[in-house]
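forwarding from the other thread:

> can someone predict this with HDD?

sure thing
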Amino acid sequence: MSIKKPAPDKSEMAGTDTPDRANTNAKLDSLEKFRSDATGQALRTNQGVKIADNQNTLKAGPRGPSLLEDFIMREKITHFDHERIPERIVHARGTGAHGFFQSYENHAALTKAGFLQDPGKKTPVFVRFSTVQGPRGSGDTVRDVRGFAVKFFTDEGNFDLVGNNMPVFFIQDAIKFPDFVHAVKPEPHNEIPTGGSAHDTFWDFVSLVPESAHMVIWAMSDRAIPKSLRSMQGFGVHTFRLINAEGKSRFVKFHWRPTAGTCSLVWDEAQKLAGKDTDYHRRDLWEAIEMGDYPEWELGVQIVEEENEHDFDFDILDPTKIIPEEIVPITPLGKMTLNRNPDNFFAEVEQVAFCPGHIVPGIDFSNDPLLQGRLFSYTDTQISRLGGPNFHELPINRPVAPFHNGQRDAQHRTTIDKGRASYEPNSIDGGWPKETPPAAQDGGFESYPERIDAAKIRQRSESFSDHFSQARLFFNSMSEHEKEHIIAAYSFELGKVEREFIRAREVNEILANIDLTLARRVAQNLGLPAPVKGTVEVRKTSLDRSPALSQANLLPGNIKTRKVAILAANGVDGAAIDAMKKALEAEGAHAKLLGPTSAPVKTADGKALAVDASMEGMPSIAFDAVFVPGGAASVTALSGDGVALHYLLEAYKHLKAIALHGEAKQLQDLLKLDADVGLLQGKDVGALTKPFFAAIGEHRVWAREPKAKAIPA
Ligand code: HDD
C-alpha cells in the first residue's frame, strides 16, 4: 500500500517562484534571527527515529481507519495534548528579557553580597514584567499594578527581587492574600471582567478593608497605566535587611528607577490600545531591545539604621507604607541593562519561577508579615505550576552557582546524581558536600540573629493602624492633572459597580478619610450625597507633600527612544521628511513614515518613498507625537482622508505633540484646533524641531487637557 504525499505548494518550491518572490524569500531567509537549532536537521521522533511522512496517519487503506500502531502520530498528538501548564494564579500575563546588573562601586560597608561589591562584574539577570489580574492572553494596557520581578544570577546563588511598579501593597498580612485575589480576579459566576478591577467584588473588598486605601489610590493613579514597561519604576515594597561582613544589619527599601523616566498613557489611549494592540507593552520592550535601545534602571536603596527603626510616624514593617524619599533619600547601588530578548517564550518567560525567599548572604528578610507569608507561597505555587519540586533545574531557573545537596529524585529530575551518599553527614563520599561556616571566605548563608522575645499571638500591631495618612500624602503630592486623573479613575471604576451601597461605602468610609475634595468630586460623579466629614480622625504626620511621588517630576529631560509618526500622501515634501528624520535620529528618537495605504508615496519631486505602514496599521496611539510635512497635494489628500483626520484629532485628544509643516497648517484650521505649546506650525523644519522636541520631552501637553475633553473619543 503506498502512501501518497500531497504535491508541495508551488510557492514553496524554490525553482518555481516568480523571480520577485524568490528574491524576497531569500532576503527574509537571510534576515531570520530566530533560527531553530534544527536547521539542516532531519525531522525525527522523540526517540530519535527519522520520520518519512509527517502528513498522513498510518491507515488501513487510503480511505480506511487509522491504526493504533502509528507511534509517530500518537507521540506527536500526546505531546501536543499536554502542551499547556497552569498559568500563574496572579501575574499570569507577562513578558521578560535578559540583561545584566553592574554595581557602581564596592558596597561592602553595606552588604557582603558579592554582586554589590565588584564594579567590574556583570551579574546576569532575567526580568519578568506582568499585570496582576488578567489571564495570559489579556491586554497589556489595562488599569492594573505591574509586576517587576528580577532574578539576579549571582556567583553566590540566585537573588530574586520580586516587586511591583508601586511601592506599597493592598493588605498587611499574607493570610488575606487569597481573599484579596478572589475579590479582584474576574467574578466566579461569569468570569468577568478580564484584566480590570472595575467590578463589585473588588470594590466590596477594598471598601471593607481600609488598609488597602493607600495602594488603591496608587492603582487609581496614572501609575496603573504605564506608557511602557521601560518607563516604570520598580519597588521591592517590603523592608529588607542588608548585612555586611562584620554582621552589621541595616533596614533597606529597594527601588528601581528607569533612566528613560517614568510616565504613563492617558486613559482613553490605554483603553483603545488594549483592543488595538493587546501586546503593546510586550511589543515595545521586544522592539526596543531588538533596535539596541536597551532599557536601563538604576537600583537604589533607602537605608535605615537599626537604631532608627522606630523614628517614623508609621511602621517600616508595614507594607502599606512608603518611606518618603524626602525623609530618607535613595542611595544608588548600580544599574541594570536589558539587552537580550528570550529565545523561547514558554521555556523562559513562562517557566521562570521567582520567590522572595531566594536570597544570598548579605541580604535578609524583615518581619513584615506580608513578606513572611510570601516566603512560603511562591515555592508552593511552582510545585503545581511547574509539576514538581525540580523547577530549579529548568535552564531559566538554574543558578550559575553550582548546587550540590542530598535532595534527590521527584518529578522531572534531570540531574543524574552520582554516588551513594545522598545524606549528610556521610563518610563514604569523604563527607561531601559539606557545610561552609558563615565566617569562612565566601561563607554559608547566615540569618540575622534578631532577638525575639514575644508571646505567640494572632494580632495586628497597633503601629499598623494608620491607613489614610499616606494615601492623603500621595494625593496631595500629585500635580493638578494627576489629581484629575485619580478622580476620574475612581468615578469610572465605581460607576461600574452595580451595588450602590458599595459605591457609597468607598466614598464615605475610604475616600472621605483620604481627602474630602476627592470624596466629594467622586460622589458628585456617582450622583451620591457629598460626604461632610471623614469617619476617622486625621493624624498629624511629619510630611504633607512628597514631590518624588509625582510623575510630573520624573521625566528624563530628553526624547531618546520616543516614536514619531510622519503622515504623508502623494506630493509630499520629501526634503521636510528627511530633515525631520535626521533631527529625530540625532536625539535618539525614531520616526515611521505612514501613508494612506501600505503602498509607497511619491514626493513632490517624483521620488517613490517606501512607507513603514498605513495610518490604519499604526494608529496614533502607538506614537508619542505626529509630524505632518508640507506639500500641497499631500495635504489636500490628507484633508479628505477620514483616517488621517482622525489620526490628528486622536493625537490631539491624547495630548501629544503635533508639528504641522508648510501647507499642513490647513489641517489645523480644518479641524478647528487651537495652537498651544504642543500644537505647532511653521515653514521651516529646522525652526519647528526645537519647540516640537521640547513638547515631546514634556511627555504630554497637560495644559491642553480641558480642551481635549471636547474631542470625541
Ligand atoms: Fe506575589 C506572583 C509581586 C504579594 C503570592 N507576585 C508574583 C509576581 C510578582 C509578585 C511580580 C510575578 C512573578 C513572575 O513574574 O513570575 N506579590 C508581589 C508583591 C507583593 C506580593 C510585590 C507584595 C508586596 N504574592 C503576594 C502575597 C502572596 C503572593 C502576599 C501570597 C501569600 N505571587 C504569589 C504567588 C505567585 C505570585 C501565588 C503567582 C505565580 C508565582 O507566584 O510564581 O505565589
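The radius of gyration is 29 Å. thats all i got for now
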